[in-house]
TrEMBL record:
<dbReference type="InterPro" id="IPR057779">
    <property type="entry name" value="Znf_RING_Vps41"/>
</dbReference>
<dbReference type="InterPro" id="IPR015943">
    <property type="entry name" value="WD40/YVTN_repeat-like_dom_sf"/>
</dbReference>
<dbReference type="GO" id="GO:0009267">
    <property type="term" value="P:cellular response to starvation"/>
</dbReference>
<dbReference type="GO" id="GO:0008270">
    <property type="term" value="F:zinc ion binding"/>
</dbReference>
<dbReference type="GO" id="GO:0005765">
    <property type="term" value="C:lysosomal membrane"/>
</dbReference>
<dbReference type="GO" id="GO:0006623">
    <property type="term" value="P:protein targeting to vacuole"/>
</dbReference>
<dbReference type="InterPro" id="IPR011990">
    <property type="entry name" value="TPR-like_helical_dom_sf"/>
</dbReference>
<dbReference type="GO" id="GO:0030897">
    <property type="term" value="C:HOPS complex"/>
</dbReference>
<dbReference type="InterPro" id="IPR036322">
    <property type="entry name" value="WD40_repeat_dom_sf"/>
</dbReference>
<dbReference type="GO" id="GO:0034058">
    <property type="term" value="P:endosomal vesicle fusion"/>
</dbReference>
<dbReference type="GO" id="GO:0005794">
    <property type="term" value="C:Golgi apparatus"/>
</dbReference>
<dbReference type="InterPro" id="IPR001841">
    <property type="entry name" value="Znf_RING"/>
</dbReference>
<dbReference type="GO" id="GO:0016236">
    <property type="term" value="P:macroautophagy"/>
</dbReference>
<dbReference type="InterPro" id="IPR016902">
    <property type="entry name" value="Vps41"/>
</dbReference>
<dbReference type="GO" id="GO:0005829">
    <property type="term" value="C:cytosol"/>
</dbReference>
<dbReference type="GO" id="GO:0031901">
    <property type="term" value="C:early endosome membrane"/>
</dbReference>
<keyword id="KW-0968">Cytoplasmic vesicle</keyword>
C-alpha cells in the first residue's frame, strides 16, 4: 500500500526470488500528489534538469526532480496530448485535444501559436531548436506537418505524410524523425528530405488508439519500436554509393525482432538492454472475466529472434484497475538512468540500484559475508552503511545461528584493534557459554585487553578442559594475566586430582619460568613425573642427586640424555639394563654405542631376551657375543651366532650333539639351503633311527631321498618307516604332477605365440613410392607403372630389387636380408657366404 512518502516501494515481486532486483522505486510526491488529487496526468516529458507534466484539464506543470512545482501553464481547457522539449531544455512544444499547438521559449519571448480544426495528437521540436538554423517542429493529427521558420521569421509548413490515419506517436533524434500511424512506422531524413523506410505493424487486429505504438531512439541510428506485443530494433545504415540509383542514401535493417508476453505501453534503453512497461490483463479465477492487473516493468536482453528476461516487477500504481494500455507512458532521463512510469493517478520513478541498495538486499537475505565484502570493496561509494556495523550484524547473525567458531574467527577481522568492542564481544560470548570459541582469536599484543578477560577464559578452560587450558598457557604471554592467581587455581584443582599429568605439565610451565615459587623437591618430582627435558639441568644446578635415589626409574624415558642416564645408573646395573632394554625396544639405533655392554647385561639379568636382542641388533660385535655365550654355555645363542658368522657346519654339529633335536637340525639345514650341510646331517643321522625317521619325513622336497635310503644298513629298525616312505612317494607324485602341469602350460603358451608370430608374418606389407631399395638406394617402384618389375620384401621390412640381391647359394635356396644377416655375423661373413 502506498502512502505517497518518499522512497516508499510501490511494487511487489510476484514470487519470492533469490535474484536481486535491478531497479528500485519511489513515488513522485510533493507537488505531483497535489496535482493528481484534482486532475489526471495525460503525458510527461523528461529533461535532465526538470520534468514537464501535462494533464487532462489542459495544464502543463514544470517540476523539479523531487516533484515540486516550479511553473504552471494554462494551455487549454481540454487534455494535453503531448509535450516536447529540445535538448537544451529552453524551448517547449505543447499540443492538445482541441487542436491547439504552442511552441515557446521558457526563458525568452519566442512563441508560436496555431489552432487546427482537428485534435493534434503529437508534437516534436527539433532537438537543437535553440539554434537559429534548427527552428523546426512537427505536429501530427490526420497529417504529419513540418513547420520551419523562414529567413523573415515567418513560419511555413509542409506535409510530410497523410492518408494512413491519425499520427499517434513521433520521436525526433538528430536528423531523423520517426512516427507511427495506423499502418506502421516511418522514418524521415530531414537533411535529404526523404522518407527512408516503412515498418508495417504486425497485429492489425488491435485498435491503434487503444494500443498505441511506442517509439524510442537508443542512439542516433537505432530505433526501438514496441507495438502490441511485438518489439523491433531497427538500425539506420548508409547505403553504398553503387547502390544509390534513385533510392534514399540510407536504409533501415531490423536487427532484432521478438514477441513479449504482455501489451507494450512504453520502451526505454538501459545500456544494451531494454526497459519495457507492459499493460497486463488477467482472467479472474472466480468470475472467469478479464480484468486489468498491475502493470509490469521488465528489463529484458534482446537477442536476434527472442529475448531473455533479466528482471520483472509488478507495480501497484494508483487506479491501475481502471487504466487502459494507452493510459500508461514510460519516459526516461538518459543522463541518470531514471525511468518515469506515468499513469493518470500516479507517477512512479524507477532507478538503478546503487551499492547501498545492493548491501540492503544482501542484509535482508541474511547474506552478511557478501554484504561485508561488498562494503569493503565499495567503501568510498557507500553512504548509508558502515563496514563495522555490517560486521557486528554478521557476528550477531552467526551467534544466533550457532556458528560460534566462525563468529569468533570473524571478530579478528571485524573488531580489529578496538579493545572496547573486543571486551564487549567476550562478555557476550560468556553469556551464551562460548568463551572457549573466542579464546584462540583474542588479541595478545596490539591491543591488549584487561587481565580479567584472559583470567576469565583460563578459569573457563580449567573447569572443563585441561588440555585447552595447557595450550593457552603455552601460547599466551605470561604478562597478559596475573600468574599467581592462575597458579593458585591450578593447585586447587590438583588437590582434587593430584596425578593429573596435564595439570602437572601446566604447573611445570610455571616452574620453568619462576621456580622460586616452589621448593626444589616438589619441582624435581614434577619434572620427573612429566619427563621434563630440563630435569638433569635442575639436578646438577641444585645438587639434587640425593633426591633421585627413589626416583631413578623415572629417568628411563629420557631419550635425549642417554649418556647421562647410563652414567647415573652405572652403580645399578640391573636398572641400567632395564633402561637400555626399554630404549632398544623403542628404537634399535639410539643406544647403539651400548649394545656391546648390553650383551653382558642380558646374559646376567635377562637371558630370555638375549637371543631376540642378538637377532634385532645390527651394532653388537659378534665375536664378543660368541665369547660370552660360549663361556656361559648358551647353546641356542651360540648356534645363532655361528650361523650368522658363516660357520654353519659347527652350528649344525652343536644342534645335533648338544640339543639332540633333529627337527631343529632339519629346520636349520632348510634355512641355510646348503648341499654339504645336508650331507653332514645325513652322515650324522645314519646310525640313529629316530633321526632317520625325521629326515625321511622332511627331506623329500630338498634332497633326493634315495641318497638317504641307500645308506640305511640292512636290518636297522626304523620307527614309522612305512609312513615315512608313503609320504616320500606322495611328495614325489606331487612334484611329477606339478612338472606335467607346468609343461602343458609352456607348450600351450609356445603354440599360441607361434601362431601369433605366423599371423603377423603372413600380413601384407605396404610398398609405395617413398620406399627405397636398401642396396641401390633408388625408389623401390619404377616411375613407369606399366613396366614389369620384381621386388623382394623381407619380414624385417627391408626391401630390394630382385636384381640387386645376390643369387642364393647351391646348398640353400632360401634368401636372407643382407642388412640383418650382416648384423648377426662377423666382419666378412657376408662375403664368405656369397663365395659359397
Amino acid at each position: 500500500i502506498f502512502d505517497g512518502c518518499h522512497f516508499s516501494l510501490p511494487f511487489v515481486q510476484e514470487e519470492e526470488s533469490e535474484e536481486e532486483p535491478k531497479l528500485k522505486y519511489e513515488r513522485l510526491s510533493n507537488g505531483v500528489t497535489e496535482i493528481l488529487q484534482k486532475d489526471a496526468a495525460s503525458c510527461m516529458t523528461v529533461h535532465d534538469k526538470f520534468l514537464a507534466l501535462g494533464t487532462h484539464y489542459g495544464k502543463v506543470y514544470l517540476l523539479d526532480v523531487q516533484g515540486n512545482i516550479t511553473q504552471k501553464f494554462d494551455v487549454s481547457p481540454v487534455k494535453i496530448n503531448q509535450i516536447s522539449l529540445d535538448e537544451s531544455g529552453e524551448h517547449m512544444g505543447v499540443c492538445s485535444e482541441d487542436g491547439k499547438v504552442q511552441v515557446f521559449g521558457l526563458y525568452s519571448g519566442e512563441e508560436f501559436h496555431e489552432t487546427f480544426d482537428c485534435p493534434i495528437k503529437i508534437i516534436a521540436v527539433h532537438p537543437h531548436f535553440v539554434r537559429s538554423s534548427c527552428k523546426q517542429f512537427v505536429t501530427g493529427g490526420k497529417k504529419l506537418l513540418l513547420f520551419e521558420r523562414s529567413w523573415m521569421n515567418r513560419w511555413k509548413s509542409a506535409i510530410l505524410h497523410e492518408g494512413e490515419g491519425n499520427i499517434r506517436s513521433v520521436k525526433w533524434r538528430g536528423h531523423l524523425i520517426a512516427w507511427a500511424n495506423n499502418m506502421g512506422v516511418k522514418i524521415f531524413d530531414i537533411i535529404s528530405k526523404q522518407r527512408i523506410t516503412n515498418v508495417p505493424r504486425d497485429d492489425i487486429s488491435l485498435r491503434p488508439d487503444m494500443y498505441p505504438c511506442s517509439l524510442c531512439w537508443k542512439d542516433n541510428v537505432t530505433l526501438i519500436i514496441g507495438w502490441g506485443t511485438s518489439v523491433k530494433i531497427c538500425s539506420v545504415k548508409e547505403r553504398h554509393a553503387s547502390e544509390m540509383r534513385d533510392l534514399p542514401s540510407r536504409y533501415v535493417e531490423i536487427v532484432s525482432q521478438f514477441e513479449t508476453e504482455f501489451y507494450i505501453s512504453g520502451l526505454a534503453p538501459l545500456c544494451d538492454q531494454l526497459v519495457v512497461l507492459s499493460y497486463v490483463k488477467e482472467i479472474s479465477e472466480k468470475t472467469e472475466r478479464e480484468y486489468c492487473a498491475r502493470p509490469r516493468l521488465d528489463i529484458i536482453q534482446p537477442l536476434s529472434e527472442t529475448c531473455e528476461e533479466i528482471s520483472s516487477d509488478a507495480l501497484t500504481v494508483r487506479g491501475f484497475q481502471e487504466n487502459e494500455c494507452r493510459d500508461y507512458h514510460l519516459e526516461y532521463s538518459e543522463g541518470e538512468s531514471l525511468f518515469y512510469i506515468v499513469s493518470p493517478r500516479d507517477v512512479v520513478v524507477a532507478k538503478e540500484r546503487d551499492q547501498d541498495d545492493h548491501i540492503d538486499w544482501l542484509l535482508e537475505k541474511k547474506k552478511y559475508e557478501e554484504a561485508l565484502m561488498a562494503a569493503e570493496i565499495s567503501q568510498k561509494n557507500i553512504k548509508r552503511h558502515k563496514i563495522l556495523d555490517i560486521g557486528l550484524a554478521y557476528i550477531n547473525h552467526l551467534v544466533e545461528r550457532g556458528d560460534y567458531d566462525i563468529a569468533a574467527r570473524k571478530c579478528q577481522k571485524i573488531l580489529g584493534k578496538n579493545a572496547a568492542l573486543w571486551e564487549y564481544e567476550v562478555y557476550k560470548f560468556k553469556e551464551i557459554g562460548q568463551l572457549k570459541a573466542i579464546s584462540p582469536y583474542l588479541p595478545r599484543g596490539d591491543p591488549v585487553l584487561k587481565p580479567l578477560i584472559y583470567e576469565m577464559i583460563l578459569h573457563e578452560f580449567l573447569e572443563s578442559d585441561y588440555e585447552g587450558f595447557a595450550t593457552l598457557i603455552r601460547e599466551w604471554p605470561g604478562d597478559l594475566y596475573n600468574n599467581s592467581v592462575i597458579v593458585q587455581a591450578v593447585r586447587d584443582h590438583l588437590k582434587k586430582d593430584s596425578q593429573n599429568k596435564t595439570l602437572l605439565k601446566t604447573l611445570a610451565e610455571f616452574v620453568s619460568s619462576s621456580i622460586s615459587i616452589y621448593n626444589y623437591g616438589n619441582a624435581l618430582e614434577i619434572y620427573l613425573t612429566l619427563r621434563h627435558k630440563d630435569v638433569f639441568q635442575l639436578i646438577h644446578k641444585h645438587n639434587l642427586f640425593s633426591s633421585i635415589k627413589d626416583k631413578i626409574v623415572l629417568l628411563m624415558d629420557f631419550d635425549s640424555e642417554i649418556k647421562k642416564v647410563v652414567e647415573e645408573l652405572e652403580d645399578r646395573p640391573e636398572l641400567q639394563h632395564v633402561y637400555l632394554h626399554k630404549l632398544f625396544k623403542r628404537d634399535h639405533h639410539k643406544g647403539q654405542r651400548y649394545h656391546e655392554k648390553q650383551i653382558s647385561l642380558y646374559a646376567e639379568y635377562d637371558r630370555p631376551n638375549l637371543l631376540p636382542f642378538l637377532r634385532d641388533s645390527t651394532h653388537c660385535p659378534l665375536e664378543k657375543a660368541l665369547e660370552i655365550c660360549q663361556q656361559r654355555n648358551f647353546v641356542e645363542e651360540t648356534v645363532y651366532l655361528l650361523s650368522r658368522m658363516g660357520n654353519s657346519r659347527s652350528a649344525l654339529k652343536m644342534i645335533m650333539e648338544e640339543l639332540h633335536d633333529v627337527d631343529k637340525a632339519i629346520e636349520f639345514a632348510k634355512e641355510q639351503d646348503d648341499g654339504e650341510l645336508w650331507e653332514d646331517l645325513i652322515l650324522y643321522s645314519i646310525d640313529k633311527p629316530p633321526f632317520i625317521t625325521g629326515l625321511l619325513n622332511n627331506i623329500g622336497t630338498h634332497v633326493d631321498p634315495i641318497l638317504l635310503i641307500h645308506r640305511i644298513k640292512e636290518g636297522m629298525e626304523i620307527p614309522n618307516l612305512r609312513d615315512s616312505l608313503v609320504k616320500i612317494l606322495q611328495d614325489y607324485n606331487l612334484q611329477i604332477l606339478l612338472r606335467e602341469g607346468c609343461k602343458k602350460i609352456l607348450v600351450a603358451d609356445s603354440l599360441s605365440l607361434l601362431k601369433k608370430m605366423h599371423r603377423t608374418q603372413m600380413k601384407g606389407v605396404l610398398v609405395d613410392e617413398e620406399n627405397i631399395c636398401e642396396s641401390c638406394l633408388s625408389p623401390i617402384l619404377p616411375s613407369d607403372a606399366a613396366k614389369p618389375f620384381s621386388v623382394v620384401v623381407f619380414h624385417c621390412r627391408h626391401m630390394f630389387h630382385k636384381e640387386c640381391l645376390p643369387m642364393p647359394s647351391m646348398n640353400s635356396a632360401a634368401q636372407f636380408c643382407n642388412i640383418c644377416s650382416a648384423k648377426n655375423r662377423g666382419p666378412g661373413s657376408a662375403i664368405l657366404e656369397m663365395k659359397k
